[in-house]
Design brief:
178 residues, 2 domains, 9 helices
């Protein structure tokens, strides 16, 4: 299970947030429960999660799902993969496309040029050490405006934040794919 137990007492405000997240997901959410050991971390993480991009202009739900799935696979986070890959078909992502995010997405003809660039950039954001090849950056800048660039980068970075935190706490998958 987790590296540390859930706290016996959770502050009321955090309990309310946990209740809402569990109602929305239909799953017991261990990340906010464990974070309630340090309420500032719980609140900061909750605010970040509440402000995540869901759709913004050309950054539609499909491309954002592809970014989240890619970052989850790149970070090798079982919880993140479980959560961010859940119901991918609802976002117009095929089984072939989903599977390709683990390896060779370039050869999948159904990805648009923008999607391939978003996937490549999400992978770059998720690697250690961070390295951004100037050609990749220029290609992304040519296909995405400044706002879209920020949404792409912050979405992948947010998944990486959660991936590292969740793995550091020993949190197993929540069972979204069951």
């Amino acid at each position: 299970m987790t590296f540390i137990p859930e706290p016996q007492r959770i502050p009321l405000l955090l309990k309310l947030g946990i209740l809402i997240s569990e109602r929305v997901t239909g799953k017991k959410m261990l990340p906010p429960r464990l974070l309630s050991w340090y309420p500032k971390a719980a609140i900061g993480s909750g605010v970040m999660e509440a402000l995540v991009a869901h759709e913004d202009g050309a950054m539609d739900k499909r491309i954002l799902k592809l970014i989240r799935m890619t970052a989850s696979y790149a970070a090798a986070c079982p919880f993140c993969i479980d959560m961010n890959s859940y119901e991918y078909r609802q976002y117009g992502i095929t089984d072939e496309e989903a599977e390709s995010l683990r390896g060779d997405y370039e050869s999948v003809p159904t990805f648009s040029a923008r999607e391939k660039l978003a996937i490549a950039y999400a992978r770059a954001i998720s690697q250690t050490p961070l390295k951004f090849h100037p050609d990749l950056v220029e290609q992304v800048k040519a296909q995405f405006n400044e706002r879209e660039f920020i949404i792409l980068a912050s979405t992948a970075a947010q998944v990486n934040y959660w991936a590292r935190l969740i793995q550091a706490l020993g949190i197993p998958p929540a069972g979204f794919g069951e």
